[in-house]
Each structure stands twice: as structure tokens, then as C-alpha cells.
Design a protein that fits this description.
Blueprint: H1 9-21, E1 29-33, E2 45-51, E3 69-75, E4 78-84, H2 95-98, H3 100-107, E5 112-121, E6 131-139, H4 140-143, H5 170-183, E7 187-194, H6 203-211, E8 216-218, H7 222-230, E9 234-244, H8 257-280
Parallel strand pairs: 1-4, 1-5, 5-9, 6-7, 7-8
Antiparallel strand pairs: 2-3, 3-4, 5-8, 6-9
Helix pairs in contact: 1-3, 5-8
The structure holds hypoxanthine.
Hypoxanthine binds next to strand 5, strand 8 and strand 9.
């Protein structure tokens, strides 16, 4: 499926207006919580909750582990808009639908996006339950021709040809590394490869991904990051390594969604500590420029 879902500026504005009328907060920081990583939302204070189904055009998650609501409030003193769950291309949504909430964040004045996901470890030194700071990504679905930016470009939203040389902000990565050291959290840094899914990779595909420079693999994030950058946001990306991807068909090892969600229980508390530590060190009200 390679259709373009066209949304208009009025669509984004209508969604942003609904959100604005339902919260007193004016967040400049957005968070996307991936599979099994929902729990951070429960730490948001003065929280106002809006189910995606009550926001015009918002796509609603269809898979377990994705709650499907916006939680807006304060986290470590910063005003944040948290997406508790996201949708994926494999659910049948177009790249434009997958990234619709990111555009709405842009309309609401979000300047910094923190994206999280559950990912399979491709780098042999990684262990399940550890965290990886995303340094860069391999957009393998994008290379196949899919992009949320495909179709006419509206210069009011961003440039036709988008620079992706620093998709994941260098100074935010530096800050994340520093906070992880202070909090004694193991934080790998590496390249996230995105495939369309929903089938997990074959062992040959995992060996291929390793060969082309991937450290972790998943089925999300890259479209959202592309649109966030298009909209001028700075991005910090964190992967929870939920499983070690199987690279040899002659072993008993396998990968299941249950395993991914269970590992989320181990990863989520560390991820929450790290994100709260990062937010606490950002100057507030500035879009979090470190
Ligand atoms: N592969 C792809 N996506 C994933 C994985 C994986 O091993 N684990 C969590 N998301």
C-alpha cells in the first residue's frame, strides 16, 4: 500500500484546537511512548488525558501495549504532551496517518520531540532490558519508496528537500549520555533500522542489518522523526532493547510480542528515570534547548 492520505492545514488546526480547549498546559516538549513503555505517562502531574478517538483524524492503535491517549501535564517541571501509544505502518495506516499526531504537535508549538520504541538488539554486545540512545537511523521502508513527505510539499509545514544529516540532535545526545552516567544507567548508542513488519526479521535479515551498520531493529519511529525534523523540531530517540534478534536459524531462539512487552516492564522504569533526568536538566519554556 503506497497511497497518500492528504491532510490539510485546517485538519491539523482542528485537532490542535480540540486539544487546546481540553488542557490548560502549553507544552513545548512532546513524547512518544513505544510498545510496553507506557508507564511513564502515569508520572505526569496535573495530567489532562485525551483519548485519541476524541481528537479529529487521530489514528487509534490496534495492537496490545499501546494505550492510545494523550497525557498532557508536567514532568520534572517541564510541560509535556505524552503520546501513550502510537500507530504503525503495519497496522494499515499510511505514513501520513502514522505521523498525523506529530504535525498536530507542530501546530501546538512543540519544539522538542522525545521518541521511544521497543527494538530488537542487532549489535551482539547488547542485552535485553538495556537502553540505546539513537544516534542515527536506517529508514529501510523509506528506501523502498515510502515517506510521509511524499506528495505535494506545503512550505508552511517544512522544506521540500529535508536535511537529515542530524536527525537526532547532537547536543541532546550529549545531555542524554551525561544524565545516564550520573544516574548509572547503561546507555548504548547506535543506529536504529526500521523495517515495515509486522513479521519479525529472519536470521539472514538480521545478519544483513548488522552488515549495513544497524545496532537495533524495529517497526516504528523513522516516519515520526522525519516529520518532526520537517517541522523544525529537535529530536531525541531512545530504544528499549526488548529482545536479542535471532541471527542463526539453527538455534531454538525465537522472538514474540509477549517477550517484547515483558521486557518493556524491565526497560520502562530505567527509561522513565533517564527521561525525567533529561527533562530536569533542560531549561523550561524554551523548547528544551540544552
Ligand atoms: N524486530 C523488529 N521489531 C522489534 C523487535 C525485533 O526483534 N523487537 C521489538 N520490536
Amino acid at each position: 500500500m503506497n497511497e497518500i492520505t492528504s491532510f490539510t492545514l485546517n485538519d491539523y488546526k482542528a485537532s490542535a484546537d480540540v486539544i487546546r480547549t481540553r488542557t490548560r498546559h502549553r507544552p513545548s516538549i512532546g513524547l512518544v511512548l513505544g510498545s510496553g513503555l507506557n508507564s511513564l505517562a502515569s508520572q505526569v502531574q496535573e495530567a489532562e488525558v485525551i483519548p485519541y478517538a476524541e481528537i479529529p483524524h487521530f489514528p487509534t492503535p490496534t495492537v496490545e501495549g499501546h494505550t492510545g491517549r494523550l497525557v498532557i501535564g508536567r514532568l520534572a517541571g517541564a510541560e509535556v504532551m505524552v503520546m501513550q501509544g502510537r500507530v504503525h505502518y503495519y497496522e494499515g495506516y499510511s505514513p501520513q496517518q502514522v505521523t498525523y499526531p506529530i504535525r498536530v504537535m507542530q501546530f501546538l508549538g512543540v519544539e522538542l520531540l522525545i521518541v521511544t520504541n521497543a527494538a530488537g538488539g542487532v549489535n551482539p554486545s547488547f542485552h535485553a532490558g538495556e537502553l540505546m540512545l539513537i544516534k542515527d537511523h536506517l529508514n529501510l521502508i523509506g528506501m523502498g519508496g515510502l515517506s510521509p513527505l511524499r506528495g505535494p510539499n506545503n512550505p508552511a509545514l517544512g522544506p521540500r528537500f529535508l536535511d537529515m544529516s542530524q536527525a537526532y540532535d547532537r547536543s541532546l545526545r550529549q545531555l542524554a549520555r551525561r544524565v545516564a552516567r550520573e544516574l548509572q544507567i547503561t546507555l548504548h548508542e547506535g543506529v536504529y533500522a526500521c523495517l515495515a513488519g509486522p513479521a519479525f526479521e529472519t536470521p539472514a535479515e538480521i545478519r544483513f542489518l548488522r552488515l549495513i551498520g544497524a545496532d537495533a531493529v524495529g517497526m516504528s519511529t523513522v516516519f515520526e522523526v522525519t516529520v518532526a525534523r520537517h517541522g523544525g523540531m529537535r529530536v531525541l530517540g531512545l530504544s528499549g532493547i526488548s529482545n536479542i534478534a535471532v541471527d542463526d536459524p539453527d538455534t531454538e531462539a525465537s522472538t514474540t510480542h509477549e517477550e517484547v512487552l515483558e521486557a518493556g516492564n524491565v526497560v520502562a522504569p530505567q527509561l522513565a528515570r533517564l527521561i525525567i533526568g533529561i527533562l530536569a536538566r533542560l531549561p523550561h519554556g524554551t523548547g528544551g534547548r540544552p
